[in-house]
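Q: Please design a sequence for this.
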């Protein structure tokens, strides 16, 4: 493999960001919008702003590398698939930030808070317009596939992949909220199931399937390897997010830390923290858990407690363990798939963990 993951990822990111900007430049001319409407262009502009604001474009990377498992030649349909997966991601970000009542995302205001500022005297309108903005992004993610210049059967298969991925993600969001209503912290089996439905199936499995479809292969011929790899990489990704929420750098992430504590969320980090401490420290964490007024100082104290109790080290070890399991799944593809693409999938899990840690 001539390029390590960071260089390969950066190349895809640069190219796709240009493509995404061009897509939004022309989107206004393709939407059937009444001439009097001011809210619709505003909505599109907010979606554009959020969509183009940062992100590693790992879903784009995954679908391109999935196609490279089959061929090194240019593949028609990857641009449409890339737009689709990132528009679905934009939908998820808009709704996630609404669910979490988050003020910032990627160093700027969330769509919800942008609407709250735009309509300070109309909170219900701000809420409704945020929901509709997310819904529009979802519809656009499917429309871009339906309009792709691909054989009908390929377009239909891609739309089915994205529709199933969206449905799985919605179920994941539901069980994610349900998890936090439990009176006892969930075990890893529950946490893994949430990570699989909420994240892995749309962020990893769907891009892999779309890349293979674009390259002329049936994804079912690659099972169970695709699902196993996606689930393990998704668990790594969710652990990374949970780890960064307490132990990460807020300035580097572009959003505050401690959100999971304030929201009372039973994440990988929170569950491990509760199991690692006792007595006064556990009571301190318990009192903060679910307190929306929890101060940055309290979060810093909880972070220090977690570091002292070895929770940060354990989270990094767990991420590496699941990254290694994902690597072994990718290694099993070697006899049948192109060497350099397989090597990328082997290296990707550990690289993702190391950059998180």
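A: Design:
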């Amino acid at each position: 493999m001539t390029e390590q993951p960071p260089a390969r990822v950066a190349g895809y990111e640069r190219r796709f960001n240009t493509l995404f900007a061009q897509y939004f430049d022309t989107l206004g001319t393709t939407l059937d919008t009444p001439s009097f409407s001011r809210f619709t262009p505003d909505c599109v502009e907010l979606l554009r702003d959020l969509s183009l604001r940062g992100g590693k474009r790992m879903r784009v990377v995954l679908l391109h590398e999935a196609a490279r498992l089959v061929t090194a030649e240019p593949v028609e349909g990857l641009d449409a698939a890339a737009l689709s997966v990132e528009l679905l991601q934009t939908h998820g970000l808009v709704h996630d930030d609404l669910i979490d009542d988050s003020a910032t995302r990627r160093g700027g205001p969330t769509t919800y808070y942008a609407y709250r500022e735009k309509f300070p005297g109309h909170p219900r309108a701000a809420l409704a317009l945020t929901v509709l903005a997310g819904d529009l992004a979802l519809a656009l993610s499917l429309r871009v596939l339906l309009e792709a210049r691909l054989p009908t059967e390929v377009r239909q298969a891609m739309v089915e992949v994205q529709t199933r991925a969206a449905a799985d993600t919605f179920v994941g969001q539901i069980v994610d909220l349900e998890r936090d209503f439990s009176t006892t912290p969930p075990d890893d089996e529950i946490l893994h199931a949430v990570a699989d439905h909420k994240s892995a199936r749309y962020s990893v499995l769907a891009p892999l399937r779309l890349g293979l479809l674009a390259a002329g292969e049936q994804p079912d011929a690659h099972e169970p390897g695709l699902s196993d790899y996606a689930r393990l990489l998704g668990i790594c990704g969710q652990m990374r997010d949970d780890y960064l929420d307490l132990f990460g750098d807020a300035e580097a992430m572009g959003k505050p830390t401690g959100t999971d504590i304030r929201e009372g969320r039973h994440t990988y980090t929170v569950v491990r923290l509760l199991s690692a401490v006792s007595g006064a420290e556990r009571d301190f964490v318990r009192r903060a858990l679910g307190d929306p007024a929890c101060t940055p100082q309290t979060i810093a104290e909880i972070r220090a407690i977690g570091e002292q109790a070895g929770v940060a080290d354990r989270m990094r070890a767990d991420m590496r363990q699941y990254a290694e399991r994902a690597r072994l799944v990718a290694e099993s593809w070697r006899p049948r798939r192109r060497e350099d693409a397989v090597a990328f999938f082997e290296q990707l899990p550990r690289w993702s963990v190391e950059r998180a840690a």
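Q: Thanks. Anything notable?
A: The CA atoms of residues 245 and 259 lie 7 Å apart. The first strand starts at residue 104 and ends at 105.
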